[in-house]
Each structure stands twice: as structure tokens, then as C-alpha cells.
Write a structure and sequence with these properties.
Jelly Rolls
Length: 197
């Protein structure tokens, strides 16, 4: 067979390769993780109001936080993460040795959103492991402070709530459990953001 007779065969092979390979490449590109671009967000900086969060036990809100008002024997945050508003457990004193949990909660509707993300800043000073600070979503624990007694500064916490996407009743709940032994400054929360698409 002469070379000029092979040219159409080579062209056919090249066209088949390009035609059948491109969809695969495009499919692989589609399957790569796309960046999260939220279409909505709800933010709570607590500077003008308490955000309609529901407290029990030691949780308190202020929008005029001033560390000089602290009368406890431990070290609280020197300032709110931003502005002067925050939630905390007995804001200007050590938390109570109650032998029970204090909760801060609010319920949200994520209908129409398959991807939902939560971010917030926390400041923790608790008598771990007898006392603890945890976050729950619909009563399932999704975060705890680990093995540290004190966060030296505000720390960013990111939690993926996509498992609760399209759910019309999602409760976000913060817990401080206090034993009856030693009290510390507590659990402080600021700048909560929930976003989804």
C-alpha cells in the first residue's frame, strides 16, 4: 500500500481520536470540584442586636463589650472579634459551676440550598476535660474545642453544613458544659456567617 493511500486512514484515526476523546476531557473537567460561590448569606456580628439566638443558662449577649468590666479570676477576650458585640457565657465573670449545660441556639431553613457553609469566630477558656465547648447541628456534634484549655486569640471555625441542605429545620446549637469543680472565663462567639447556594 502506498503512502498516499494511508493518508485518509491516518486522518480518519486522528478525527476519531479527537471526536471521542474530547467529551471525556470535558467530562473530567466537569467532575472537578467547582469553587463555592454563595447566592445568599446571613451574617451576625451582634453589634446592633442579639441576632434572635435563644440562650439558656450562662449565655449572655452584649453590644458594648469592655474587658475592663470583667470581674472573674481568669482571662477573657480583650475585645470582641469585630465591633463591640458578642455572645458569651457570663460575659463579665467566670462561668458558673452548675454541673449542667448552657446552650445558645437558633433554627434555620435551608430549603433550596444544596451547599451550605457555616463560619464563626470562637474564643475559649474552659476547664477541659471536665468542662467542654461544642457545636451541634440538629443535635449531632460537629465540633468541639479539643484538648486545649484556652484559645490565645479569636479562632476561625468553618463547618460544612451541606449534609443539611434542602432541610427546612436546621438547628445550630452551641454548648458550654460546666462541671462543679473549677470555673473559667468561658465560651465566646462572634461574627457568625451562614451562606449557601
Amino acid at each position: 500500500m502506498k503512502l498516499k493511500n494511508l493518508i485518509p486512514v491516518f486522518l480518519f484515526i486522528i478525527i476519531c481520536f479527537v471526536f471521542f476523546s474530547c467529551p471525556t476531557v470535558a467530562k473530567e473537567e466537569d467532575e472537578k470540584e467547582k469553587p463555592f460561590i454563595p447566592t445568599w448569606s446571613t451574617e451576625f456580628n451582634f453589634d446592633t442586636n442579639n441576632g434572635a439566638w435563644t440562650p439558656t443558662g450562662d449565655w449572655q449577649w452584649t453590644n458594648t463589650y469592655d474587658v475592663l468590666n470583667y470581674t472573674g479570676s481568669n482571662v477573657p477576650p480583650t475585645a470582641a472579634h469585630s465591633g463591640a458585640g458578642l455572645w458569651g457565657t457570663v460575659i463579665y465573670d467566670d462561668y458558673n459551676n452548675s454541673g449542667s449545660s448552657s446552650y445558645l441556639s437558633r433554627t434555620f431553613d435551608f430549603t433550596g440550598s444544596s451547599i451550605v457553609k457555616l463560619s464563626l469566630y470562637v474564643w475559649v477558656n474552659c476547664f477541659y476535660t471536665w468542662d467542654w465547648c461544642k457545636i451541634y447541628i440538629n443535635n449531632t456534634q460537629v465540633w468541639d474545642y479539643g484538648t486545649y484549655n484556652t484559645s490565645p486569640s479569636w479562632e476561625l471555625v468553618n463547618i460544612d453544613l451541606s449534609a443539611y441542605g434542602n432541610n427546612n429545620s436546621v438547628e445550630i446549637k452551641f454548648e458550654l458544659y460546666a462541671s462543679t469543680v473549677v470555673e473559667k472565663a468561658g465560651f465566646y462567639i462572634d461574627d457568625i456567617k451562614i451562606e449557601g447556594n
